Amino acid sequence: MKKKSKMLIARDAFELADELGLTPSDAVEIEVRSALNDKIVEIVKKHGLTHAQVAKVAETSRTRVTAILNRNTQDVSTDLLLRILARLGYRAKISFSRAA
Length: 100
Description:
Blueprint: H1 13-20, H2 24-47, H3 51-58, H4 62-69, H5 78-87
């Protein structure tokens, strides 16, 4: 007999990390990388760029760009996400606040 999975709902990166048994620092990483990914997807759509165009500008492979635009960034470094943003003419601005 198959065991039924319980569906979990997380409202933010911190709840997700908690449900997955990850650390608060993992949650911060998830949150930052997700924001970077969201912005890249937004820019590419806004400017109607192809995956190949983004790859050429960012000096990375089209396969990596496709993964990023499909939000599959498990094997993509944060450095690459930042480099893509920079090559597309954008800067990331990070703010800090004390954790609750």
